[in-house]
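Quick one, T. Sequence first:
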Amino acid sequence: MRRLALLLLLAFPLSSFAQLPEWAQSYGSNIPFSRSTHLTGFGMAMLAGAESVALENAKAQAASDLIKKIQVTVSSDMVSISQEIDGKFSSSLTSVVQSVSALQLEGIEYLTAKDDKNFYALAFIKRAELGDAYTQRIKAGLVRLQATLSQAEDTSNPTAAVEKYLATLLRFSELLEWVALVRALTGKSLSSDEIGVPVRSSAMEFLAYREQETRTKVNTLLQKPIASLDDAAANAVQQLQLQGMAIGTIQVLDLTYQDSDFSSVFGAFFARKLDAQLSSAPKRSPESQVVRGSYWERGNAIELVLLAQKTNGEKIGSVSLTFPKTIVPKDIEIKPRNFEQALKDQKVIAEGALVEGGISVEVWTNKGRNLEHVAFQEGEKVELYFRVNQPAFLRLTYLLSTGQQVLLEEKFYIGIDRVNQVVKYPSELVCSPPFGVERLIVTAFSSEPPKPSVKVEKISGEEYEVIAEPLAQSLTKTRGLKKSASAKDLKLGETALTITTMPKLRQ
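Structure tokens:
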């Protein structure tokens, strides 16, 4: 460890490092603002070419770090908000998480610095100012939305009414996202009165209620027999086209189940049906687009909600469908395996998630990352990639569908020469039984981490180091290190990747 510390010091000429501002020396941990009034993100980039390119890379990483903190907060908030309003509007709340996954923020400011080897950037926003700005956006947007709803209700032409109602669904998605952002930025839940609606409820609950009311009207006006999943996919494409969506090169992500962040055999199967329908539609846009969605079991029916976006996050289409379960082939599992346990694990990971640990860490696979709802079929190889915004040791914990926590890697080190670069993990995994929802938890440490308590167990004929304590306890221990007086200089980062494993889908 001493030799490693010496090497890190040698990587920085002491004279130039000492001239850096404290926020750069501490990799964004010691900031010149109060965390209660400002939200920040840190980035750095090596001077390996033009200085302007390195500076922009550092700023881009800083902005990404800042936005990620908001996304984590919003995702965690949705768990508590759903409990507060008794889960009545789960489809609306889930769409908020999906919408904010491509969040773009205006008004980010930067501090920058450089030494002989690197550019450093600190992105920052003022919480209150941005919260006020979004509150004003909500008020103005709600006025426009209510005007469109009135036009839809006043027309006697069913086709015109459908088009008007469908146009409001995108606005609902946008307004709900802004309400969630105000809460994430300020810690304050807006009331309906604060957005100009004199009723006794939260702004989130009011908008979610009106959105679901509008979706019901759309489904009634578009009532057509749906006798197969192909019919359902065709209906979804029709709704997108009625909204004026110019279809381009579209990636359809596997649908997630209910309020979870994981998919299923049905979620993957329907995504392929929808992709086939969209691929056969005339292409009228050169832009890349993505469609993500979720579905719920409602008695003998399935409710499905989709959101289409450009890659820059702009919303371009929203779909709501309800159809009977009986049209789903018998061999296509609707509910994910190990669902109950996976949902508990999702809540354990989300509650108390490490937002301001000091290190930004990202993980994705050869099939994407959480925003893409990663699913692998039997026999497929799983490659892992990482990126951190400062030197760090990575601990990799894999939560199997059986509930066991396997310590895949104790301390995979990414040095300063690979900061902000995509680093491939040298080992590969292969998708194999038992199938279900599994998770990779990546914890980043600024110094060599303590090894968790493990025991050796055989799983599918192979020996693994299995963490003995429950997931909640092991996460609490890791997150608690930041609060320890003896570890006051320790910086942490955390992210989790959900992987749904399944048998091979039939063609």
